[in-house]
Amino acid sequence: MISEQAYEVLAAQWREPGFTCPNSKTYPWLWLWDSSFHAIVWAHLGDAERAVTELTTALSAQDADGFVPHVLYLDGSQDHEAFWGRPDTSSITQPPIYGLAIAELVRLGISLPADLVDRATAGLNFLFESRRRSPAGLIEIVHPWESGCDHSPRWDDLVLGQSEFDEEVWFRRKGELLQGIERKAGGAPIWNDQFAVGSVAFSAITAFCAHELAGVTGDQSLRDHAADVSDALALRWEPGLRTWVDDGPTANGSGRVRTVEALLPLLTLPIQRGNSGGGVADVAAGGVADLAARELMDEQAFAGPYGARQVHIDEPTYLPTTYWRGPSWPQLNYLLWLGLQRVGKFAEAALLAECSRTGALRSGWAEYWDADTATAGGAVPQSWTTLAACMDAPKA
Predict the structure, then answer these.
(1) CA dihedral 50, 53, 58, 60 (to 10 degrees)
(2) Where are the beta strands (DSSP E) in the chain?
(3) Domain 2-390: which topology?
(4) In degrees, to the nearest 5, what angle opens at C-alpha 121 toward C-alphas 389 and 204?
(5) C-alpha distance across the termini of the chain, in Å
(6) Which of 337, 309, 320 is nearest to 377 (CA)?
(7) Which secondary-structure segment (H or E) carries 74?
(8) What is the sign of the dihedral through the CA atoms of 263, 265, 270 and 272?
(9) 106-130: average pLDDT
(10) 23 DSSP β-pair partners
(11) How far apart, in whole angstroms, are the C-alpha atoms of residue 116 and residue 210?
């Protein structure tokens, strides 16, 4: 039944020239990581044509440097150049889930145009080769929006300073941060001294997606890049906090806040070169996977009956119903579900999947929800929440 409902949600948001808007009223355009997730769901629901079309549309605005913008304004109803410096797209990116999406489609037996695979590879190489690295070797993001976790407490030092959370302050500051981005001649963003964060979450997603793509293409260069970043992430684990700590100007402040996206380096533990062959046994022996999984399953930390809380329940910044300050997010649940399985935590992954599916259904397929009550937040329905329909089979 959940698959049929998920298909109905996606189909209702399908738009020309071939993409699924997250929500027709709140988010009528194309968002990069949303569409990459949508492609995964379309494929799992048996609609290969829409899966390929959605990915093709999402990567269609890629520039010559490999940079992929995170929003495409495909209706042409407004000119966005005053804000972004481009009329029809944004000028920053989002986590490159398209690498994972292509790998998933290939594993499901879906034929892909060579050009689509080349675009995904180029997008990942842009992040590995053109983006500035933090002192510890993580990939720097140039703006909070690039993380996908827009209002995360991890960015507070560089957005709010010492002030309390104020959404108006956030939006004003984020507009200012766009002006500090350094770009290549063609406009591709490469660093921002005002927001030089080596994000463990973004770096982990990038390394994982590159490794997944290389697994179906055989691209050794991507494998090497993924291993480099995974090795750098290994040094960011803080055992006292049981989390990975961001690098750069927030490393001793808000970059240490315990958020669930900061546990995404679970995805990269098997990729680290210190593991002989990247096996589960090597990872478990190190103890990091055990500790991270324990945090995810702890009701006094992240575990809610309807999915993982985005912020640790004991953090002063935890707000259970506020956008990117604490609710459960379906796409993070999905990635953490994959991560738990990659390190052999299958029982924990199954529990997280069940909680996330229940939260998705009880919230009416909401954009996010209170992890303890399933009270809906944000747009309802939200297309990426259909990922719940994919969380019913092992991905080991």
Answers:
(1) -170
(2) 14-15, 19-20, 30-31, 71-72, 140-141, 181-183, 189-192, 197-198, 237-238, 243-244, 303-304, 307-308, 368-369, 376-377
(3) Glycosyltransferase (1.50.10)
(4) 60
(5) 25
(6) 320
(7) none
(8) negative
(9) 99
(10) 27
(11) 15
Taking only the tens place, the pLDDT of each residue in 75-97 is: 877 778 889 999 999 999 999 99
Give the span between the Cα atoms of 157 and 147, in whole angstroms: 16
Structure-model confidence comparison of residues 113 and 75, the more confident one: 113
Looking up tokens 């209170």 gives 370
pTM value > 0.85: yes
CA distance 362 to 121: 38
DSSP code at position 56: H
Distances (CA, A) of 96 to 109, 124, 211, 224, 231: 21, 7, 12, 17, 19
The answer for residues whose C-beta is within 8 angstroms of residue 21's C-beta and 6 or more apart is 13, 15, 27, 28, 29, 30, 383
What's the rounded Cα separation, in Å, for the pair 118 and 308?
35
For tokens 């995810």, name the residue.
296
12 is written with which tokens? 């209702």
- The tens digit of pLDDT for each residue in 276-324 reads 544 443 544 359 999 999 999 999 999 999 999 999 999 999 999 999 9
